[in-house]
Amino acid sequence: MLSFDLRALEAKAVQVDGSLQPDDPIWEEADNRPAEPIRVSGRLSTAGEGRFYFTGTMEGRVEMACRLCLEDVDVEVSENVHFLLAEIGAEEADDPEVFLYDPNARLLDLRGAVRETWLLTAPAFVQCRDDCKGLCATCGTNLNERTCSCTQTTTDSRWGALLRHQGDPH
Ligand SMILES: [Zn+2]
Ligand SMILES: [Zn+2]
User: Which residue spans within 9-50 are E strands per DSSP?
Assistant: First the structure.
């Protein structure tokens, strides 16, 4: 549960202990969704008239393809997060770290803020390991698993070729 009664919240801070499902309608098409529900826990309290402050943790997991060899990689995401929610029309509306809510609604819904915080926190790309050798650019062999016959011409990194080119006196 990530929705809280606004009137009750104004009177008393609440303990947040909820989750955001990967198939929640709050997610948009292109989002880097979590592989399992994101667990959100912490404390939600008023921060003055028309403002609420959340501080706590967000934990989840993403499954992504390694950017070099395309093997699936599991990445744990565990972050301390905090954000401010201000009512629509508040002067902080331009601040990207402030989320807006409708003061006329009965419930304060944290899902939008959790989604955006997740998108900022989860990695945009991953590598299966620091020394991943990637795929052969010629035949597509996963070079972490074996070498291929074209390895001789592709072990030169592109950077190496570029640097040599730059050193060229022409
Ligand atoms: Zn890899
Ligand atoms: Zn090859």
Answer: 14-20, 38-46
